[in-house]
Structures are given as structure tokens and as C-alpha cells.
Amino acid sequence: MNDEKIIALFFERSEQAIAELDRKYGAACRSVSFHILGNREDAEECVNDAYLGVWNAIPPAKPHPLLSFVCRIVRNVSLKRYEYNTAVKRNSHYDLAIEELEDCLASSSTVEAELAKQELTALIEAFLDTLSGEDRVIFLRRYWFAEPYNEIAEKVGLSEKNVSVRLVRIRKRLRSYLSEREVFV
Q1: Which residues contact 128 (CB under 8 A, 6 or more apart)?
Q2: Do 175 and 102 share a structural domain?
């Protein structure tokens, strides 16, 4: 079933919409959640919570593309669960992925934090446009989907070491890109 028909089912408030959404994008949603949480049961629960979020958001929202909309909700729900689960613990795989980016990103605790966050988001999006398609996929799989190096390597057909080296180079380029635009880290 295509995205427009699934969205139409949501607008009709048909419970079939959730079933069709899960049939089409359930595996991707569970993958996003699992890579953040590292626990299949928690991931499944977060995906179900995200489906409720989608149910409450459509209508009025009419997302395009639907997959990005759903994955963003799944990611946000999973991050909240992750924060809850790791309030005392540290050093999980997700912490490691985020720590790799910390050298590139400054912490903003000023009044202008929200504006700075929007500007930083725009700069990172512009930076991603400068990357090759393969490097962009590697970057997003690591830092958006929190996938481990071995899974990224398998999906893009590279060695794990090659993925690691590319990510180091991409982070250096990001740091340089941000510095050139006077975003100091």
C-alpha cells in the first residue's frame, strides 16, 4: 500500500492504518529504535508508542515522506526511553556514537540556544549536501540511526575499518566546515 493510502486511512481514523504502517515500515522503525536502545523488547514498545504518536499527529499532519515522519517519532520516543534507561549508566553504544560528534558541536546554554540550534541544524544539513552519497549514508547511519560500524560496513559494502576511517575524516571536515562559518567548538 502506498503512503497516500496509509495517510488516508489515518484521516478516516481506521485502525487498519496502523497495521498497514507497520507492514510497510515496521522493520525500519524497529531497527531505528533497536540501534538506540540495544534491547528488542524496549524497541518494540517504543515503536508501538510511536505508532500512537503517529495516530495522534495524523490528522491534522499530512506528512511527506511518511517514512521520515514516522522514523523521527520513533527516534524521539526511543531517545526518551534511552535517557530513562541510562539515567545512571554510561558507555553504551549510543553514548559512544554521540561522543564521537561532541568535538564537532558546541554546547549552547545561552538564551539564544534555540536560534543557535536551528542555525546549527541548517549548517549540518548544508554540510551533508557537500558529502558524496555514500559518505552521507555512512554519516546518517552512524549519527542518526546509531548503527554500529559493522552493520554500516555490511550495508554499504565496505570494511569496518574503512567505515571507521571515513567517519573520522567526515568529522574532521565537519569541524573545519563549522569553523569556517564561525561556529566555534
Answers
A1: 136, 139, 140
A2: yes
Of the residues 44, 59, 85, which one is the last residue of a structural domain? Answer: 85
Rounded to two decimals, the pTM is 0.64
DSSP strands (E only) in the chain: none
Q: How confident is the model over 76-123, as pLDDT tens digits?
A: 999 999 888 876 555 566 666 777 776 676 554 555 566 677 788 888
Q: What is the DSSP string of 127-166?
A: HHHHS-HHHHHHHHHHHTS---HHHHHHHHT--HHHHHHH
Residue 178 has pLDDT above 60, yes or no: yes
In 3D, which of 48, 18, 16 has the Cα closest to residue 30?
48
Domain containing 37 equals 3-85
Rounded to whole angstroms, how far apart are CA atoms 77 and 69? 13
Chain segment 125-147, per-residue pLDDT in tens: 999 999 999 999 999 999 888 88
129 Cβ neighbours under 8 A, 6+ residues apart: none
Angle at 108 between CA 131 and CA 104, to 5 degrees: 30
